[in-house]
Task: structure prediction
Amino acid sequence: MTQDRDRFTTMYDQCRQRVWAYVVSRAGRQVADEVVSETFAVAWRRLHDVPENALPYLLGIARNVLRENIREEARREGLTQELREWVSGDVAEVVAERLGVLKAMARLTQDERELLILVAWQGLSPRDAARVVGCSVPTFRVRLHRARKRLQRELEPAAAAMSRFDLSRELS
Amino acid sequence: MNPIDDVRAARPAHLGDTEVDQRTRQAELAYAMSQGTPEPRRRSLRPVWGLSLAGAAAAVTAVAVFGAGAGGGAGGGTGGGTTPAVRSATGTAAPMALSAQQVLLTAATKAEGRPSSSGTYWHTESVQRTLTRAVAGYLVVEEGRIQSWVSATGQWSRSQPLGAQPATDADRARWEAAGSPAQIEVEVPGKRTRTLTTEPGKPHSGHHAGKEIFWLGRNVTMADLKRLPEDETALKRWLLRHYQGHGTESGAPMGRDAWLFQTTAGLITDMPVSAKVRAAAFRMLAGLPTVTASAGVTDARGRSGTAVAIETESLAPNGHAAGKGTLQDRLIIDEQTGQALARESVVVEPGGLQKDFEPGTVWNSVTLVKAAWTDSREN
Result:
């Protein structure tokens, strides 16, 4: 009878912070713990359905919990606050280049940003990421391609600004 | 540069690989596992997890007494179900003279003497009982039956909620005073309540095609089980290869002894292993310094056996780091046959989610009704 508990706890330890980070990137910190808590409660009930590679499955649950349990308004508010934090990083700590990328990401749509985060920060394969967002793998690839393009465009002016910044530092 | 690499490099530190704090971890695990037992598999997925002996020991709120001999799950009296075994654990009754080592070695000898049986399916049937407190205050026993047939290539299972009943006569009186409701709202640590029904539910059948049915720290097949070492030292080494220090319900990482106890108990109760392997598992448990034994322990079906037990920390309630108590995870073994009868979780020192309960309270139990090879399955 502890087999389920052991497996669940192992899964929790391996995935909890990844799920939390995903939720924060979609709705901010305010609601993150609540959503994560609910996500794992659902995961426990469905434990016998959770695949060995649990993370994509958990992110999928978190996505639904977020949609069903958190008001759109609260989600947007939390996200705005979170994105503000991304771009207001202390320049002494945050490398300018990274800051530029985060600023560019903050300007993307929610959906575009999500795809990039699933692939780059969560390290999911296109197949797993497609499962999380609920589309086919070919569709996912097309959408990811668009999101990358869009990010690249957003990065161009930022990159220019950054080189100026670096130059000004060298001169000072 | 690939913009994905740029994005990867730009990840804010707080979204990176940080540690969850222990309080949050405990609260979230406790909350999740208080949601009843995991449901039967709904669809076939690539990986395979063993249907555990009886789903999982879930309801962490549960408290109370199944009472010795309360075969129907509704008997016993509050505190009255305290068994000598538990009293010995708390130091209030004389522990038996026999050491854990001796008990287990005896069981091991019996196990080795059993003829090895064979059949197409490894069949187990178990009944799980969990205590919860109704919002109205009285205690409720929730029962469920799980049957499983495992062949070398798949698993068929059937599970059925058997309904909830007031735990004791006193609880029944309060339930009747409330109008004998067929729907009972019970507390769940955290924010929610759950509604139990007194009527048995519909059975769920499931089938999973796949070879890796059992869980021994990782997925294993029936063929893997056939290859398990028959020597306790080698068996211990084999099992520990998959031990990574992960805890279960306690906040602290789980020690090797506790982990071995959990894993081995699963092997003893759940799995079709040879008599020699089962004996090696008993001997291995006997060698663990923190394992204790008590004689004359009665399970929820009124069967008597010898308990081997290990103490664990109780769970902390959601949002509180309050004083933790101690639970006892015990495996009741029939020495005559070397087989396991039940697995129970008992309150030793009230604390955490079990703080309102008497020492000796069995708040969760799984009794094994059948475990044998058979040539046919019923679902």
Q: What stands out?
A: Residues 42-97, 247-252 of chain B have pLDDT under 50 and may be disordered.
